[in-house]
Design a protein that fits this description.
Elements (H helix, E strand, L loop, with lengths): L1 H22 L7 E5 L2 E8 L2 E8 L2 E2 L5 E9 L2 E10 L2 E5 L9 E8 L5 E6 L2
Antiparallel strand pairs: 1-2, 2-3, 3-4, 3-7, 5-6, 5-8, 6-7, 8-9
Amino acid sequence: MMKKLMISVTASVMALVAQAAEDHQPKHGGVVVETKAGDMELVAKPELIVIHVSDHGKPMKLTSATGKVTVFNGNDKAEAPLALAGDKLEAKGSFKVGTGTKVLADVALNGKPAVAARFTLK
């Protein structure tokens, strides 16, 4: 009886760990970081930076959002404002992005205080 209970508890814990890890996997081919405002996935292209926000793996409903991104690549630094675009945030500009590029996003979502998210591109 005790052995069955331990196996059941172990299986439940493993399922929860797997689900938590899955929640933080990129769903749009970007890099995911966890913040107080939710999980943020950054997808960086030379002309567009997109941030997808989710809560426990489900896309977050965004009613308002403000912020900016700062892209650091070696000695190069570029800043751009973030704008709400449907269910995501976008910054348009000319960005030098590649492996090792660092991006700092300061974002305020749905009227809540701003949070900082730091990404390193892979």
